[in-house]
Amino acid sequence: MQDQEKFLIAFFESYVDSFTGLTPEQQNNFTIKKEHSLRVTDNACELANYLELDDEDKKVAFTAAVFHDIGRFKQLVDFNTFNDEVSADHAEFAVEILKEKGVLKNWNEELQHLVFVAIQLHNKLSIPKKITERELLHAKLLRDADKLDILKVLTDYYTDKSNPPNHTLTWELPTATKVSPRVAKEVLAGKLVSKSEVKSELDVKIMQLSWVYDINFKPSFEILFSNRFLEKIYSTLPKNDGIFDIYRKVKVFAENKLMN
Ligand SMILES: [Fe+2]
Question: What range defines the domain where residue 242 resides?
Answer without folding.
Answer: 173-259
